[in-house]
Write a structure and sequence with these properties.
single chain; 225 residues; mainly beta; hypothetical protein yedk fold
């Protein structure tokens, strides 16, 4: 799935890559985790814009912030029909910028898992397919939240985990972000596994297991076993 990722590219790189001015307050993050505030890119007034949203989508109809189940990831196979996501899938799609993400691989005869860092070979930030939603609390306070769409793992990912985030090719970004496009068949066709040959993965140290640890050493290769 996708439960942790990193975004450390500087503002100029992100602005050029996503065609929108990255916020000045954006700082390098090496271990972004669910419920934290993360940057997203969406279309507002016909233009791409960065925004900040809570990771963990809260449907507009939810009575409370804590729904009791995880909404950090939406499955590509059911995102168009599942009540939690179907409205956002039609009307509120976004990109979630990332330099790479973490996944944990089960180890034979061990309860511990080996974390891996997965990125693009060309070093460019990637854009996850995401959804965003606006929820209003009973007290009238508005909160924007988001999720990342996941699909089947490609050949690179499958030995590590059977699922992976949907990484959209930049050629698909305009269509994905266009609020006028609502055809579920067309949109779901975009939600496929990214080519394995364009990606790279390396094992990293277990300091990334702690979501409170947010430092560059999260990216360091795992020490020899």
């Amino acid at each position: 799935m996708c439960g942790r990722f990193a975004l450390y590219a500087d503002r100029d790189i992100l602005s050029r890559r996503f065609g929108a001015e990255a916020p000045e307050a954006l700082r390098p993050r090496y271990n972004l985790a669910p419920t934290q505030t993360i940057p997203i890119v969406r279309v507002e007034d016909g233009r791409r814009r960065f925004a900040l949203a809570r990771w963990g989508l809260i449907p507009s109809w939810a009575k409370a912030m804590d729904s009791g189940y995880s909404t950090i990831n939406a499955r590509a196979e059911t995102v168009a029909t599942k009540p939690t996501y179907r409205s956002a899938f039609k009307h509120r799609r976004c990109l979630v910028p990332a330099d790479g993400y973490y996944e944990w691989q089960a180890q034979a005869q061990s309860k511990s898992k080996q974390p891996w860092f997965i990125a693009l070979k060309d070093g460019q930030p990637m854009g996850f397919a995401g959804l965003w939603e606006r929820w209003t609390s009973p007290e009238g306070e508005a909160l924007e939240s988001c999720c990342i769409i996941v699909t089947d793992g490609n050949d690179l990912m499958r030995p590590i985990h059977d699922r992976m985030p949907v990484i959209l090719d930049p050629s698909c970004w305009d269509a994905w972000l266009d609020p006028e496009i609502k055809d579920p068949s067309f949109l779901q066709a975009l939600l496929k596994s990214y080519p394995a040959e364009a990606m790279t993965a390396r094992p990293v140290g277990r300091q990334v297991n702690n979501p409170r640890h947010d430092a560059p050493d999260c990216l360091e290769p795992a020490p020899p076993q």
